[in-house]
Amino acid sequence: MKKAIYPGSFDPVTLGHLDIIRRSSKLVDHLIVGVLNNSGKSPLFSVDERVNMLKEVTSDLDNVEILSFSGLLVDFARKHEVQTIIRGLRAVTDFEYELAMSQTNRVAAPEVDTIFLNTSLKYAYLSSSIVKEMAMYGGDISKFVPKLIVDKVYDKYNTAGEISTLKGED
Ligand code: ADP
């Protein structure tokens, strides 16, 4: 059975993440989406909220499982007997960091390999940080995150009202 882990913060999940999840779920028998519970960062959504959002938007994908983890990714991979990590690459800016991470992981766990999927062009610019920034100022994020997620992000910033007012004025 081919298994892989797609790790990330997913704060919140974007259409770019979902695209990588859908594409990688076709490459393996079982895909674990690993939601990082990182005490160093202060995320907008709690780890449970991020896990639940991912469960909702992947409910049609039978071979995808959503789990949270803390600590080292390679330890999480070993615990689940997974030898493949999947990461998305958007642009050269991602490359240096991703290369360093994958090489470090390989030293720590030589049996674990990292596979990079290039982003679909239409999501190449998309990041969770951009989504948060847009939502904070009441911008339209409906093209960036799955439908089920849109209001959850606005709720965090109490900006949903501004959006409906803007729409009402059209
Ligand atoms: P992290 O904090 O680990 O970078 P993210 O949630 O930001 O977590 O991203 C998780 C993974 O998804 C990373 O490999 C990242 O490069 C990839 N990713 C993020 N946004 C996109 C996108 N728009 N298209 C493709 N891959 C993406």
Essential attributes:
45% helix; 18% strand; alpha/beta; 3-stranded parallel sheet; binds adenosine-5'-diphosphate; 170 residues; 7 helices
Describe the structure.
The protein is of the alpha/beta class and 170 residues long. It contains seven helices and five strands; from the N terminus they run βαβαβαβαβααα. The strands form two sheets. It has a three-stranded parallel sheet. Strands 4-5 form a two-stranded parallel sheet. β2, α2 and β3 form a beta-alpha-beta unit. The termini are far apart. The mean pLDDT is 92. It binds adenosine-5'-diphosphate. Residues 8-10, 14, 16-17, 20, 87-88, 90, 94, 119, 123, 126-128 line the site of adenosine-5'-diphosphate. Adenosine-5'-diphosphate binds at residues 8-10, 14, 16-17, 20, 87-88, 90, 94, 119, 123, 126-128.
SSE layout:
Layout: E1 3-8, H1 15-25, E2 30-36, H2 47-57, E3 64-69, H3 73-79, E4 84-89, H4 92-108, E5 113-118, H5 128-136, H6 147-157, H7 160-169
Adenosine-5'-diphosphate binds next to helix 1 and strand 4.
Strand content: 15-25%
Q: What is the 3D shape?
A: globular
Which regions contain 5 or more consecutive residues with pLDDT less than 50? none
- Largest sheet, if any? 3 strands, parallel
Helix content: 40-55%
List the total number of helices.
7
Bound compounds, each kind once, are: adenosine-5'-diphosphate
Describe the strand arrangement of the main beta sheet, using strand numbers.
1-2-3
Mean pLDDT, rounded to whole units? 92
End-to-end separation: 53 Å
Number of strands: 5
Rg over alpha carbons: 17 Å
| Series of secondary-structure elements, N-terminal to C-terminal | EHEHEHEHEHHH
Helices and strands: which structural class? Answer: alpha/beta
